[in-house]
Amino acid sequence: MKKTPRNIAAIFVALAGALPASAESQPEITMAINQSPWLNSFVAMVDLYEAETGNVVVLDVNPFGGLLEKIRNSVRSTEGTYDLVAVNSLWLSEIYSGGFLAPLGDIRAGYALQDGILTYGATTNWDPAVGSFSPDGTLMGVPVNGNVQVLYYNQAIYDDLGLSVPATWEELYSNAMAIADGTDSYGFVPRAARDSIVYNFTPYLFSHDAAFFRVTGPGQAEIGLNTAEGLAALNAYLRMSGEDVAPPNPGAIAQGELIQLLSTGRAAQAIAVIAAWGALENPNESRVAGQMSAALIPAGPGGTHASSAGHWVAGIPNNVPAERQAAALAFLDWFQSQELQVNYVEAGGVPVRGDLADTDLGANNAYRFLDAYSANAENAVMGLPFAAAAEASDAMALHFNRAVIGEESAEIALNSAAEALAGVLERNGFAVTRQPDL
Prior knowledge:
The structure is a single chain. With 438 residues, the protein is of the alpha/beta class. The chain contains 16 helices and 16 strands. The chain has a 5-stranded mixed beta sheet with strand order 2-1-3-14-7. α2 links the parallel β1 (29-34) and β2 (57-62). α2 (39-53) packs across α13, α8 packs across α9 (228-240) and α15 (389-404) packs antiparallel against α16 (410-427).
């Protein structure tokens, strides 16, 4: 097994002598992690940890599509290959509910996350009695990347047109119309391709005080999609995908196309992951470097804000020796401090704390996204908090996408998506309460 190449780490090694040792001597551990835009920043943190403590963390880097299968194979073995596993938010329910991870309080009695660490809708904690995330559940992992959605807007265009940051969906649409009418840029760009639309639609749905479903008790769920609130949310999404403000063929726009439209200046606004910030600020990749700003995603009619959690949590498998579990927790504990999270951001990472705007980073224009990131992270939700989240997302995406491209009305799309979701829930052991068709 080979550790990934170091591209950024050298800038931190010199700091090691000035930092206090944060962990005792520990055995070598191996971590399964994904190949991603934030990998190099995490590698830099591993290098700093090794320089500071002398402990070794070996990274087994995998493509996103293959990582889950490697994790599944390892956690189901008699003795696992990995002492730490990076778990995407969409997979958390499967891994938690399978009992594959060691509760952190079992590894170190009374262990709790450090103050300031974000939990992204309590997704660090699992309640097996309810079968879902809960702040009162057992602590199962530590966030290692806080990838939530934010509202991006072109500050230069806003200034030229005299626009204000929108507080509501109505104001966002008004700004989009002003941009479309007054510039050569699209007013807004959705991420409405089938592989993206459920994630992108989630803030609209939850800010309208709706949900895909709600866990109402052990093994019990109520569909919350095809309701008056859900219909208002989908209509808001369809309006922001309409030809008066959005690019042609919005149903084919995935994350890559969205970022390209923003970075070339062809679009002025979008809701996208905070991890896109680096590409938009890079003058070698973006024509709008220095022009973009980030904000809190608009609120629904009742004043509710929501963002989609798309983060990563590191967990420690049950099937590795106790001394390696303790070593894995020592690294995760070290990683959480405010000082080290500042280093993480400076290396290009997405932090997992909500208090970094209070540090020197807050006064640095290069990190002007921090307030928006923290605010959206505080409102992050897990739209599908159960083990078959990926299957449910795929089933619903078909109908949301059809609504965007005009093949289904909003009502039919919601009814069909709700029926598909109910079927997935029932196949996974839930007793489901349905809503009457719209």
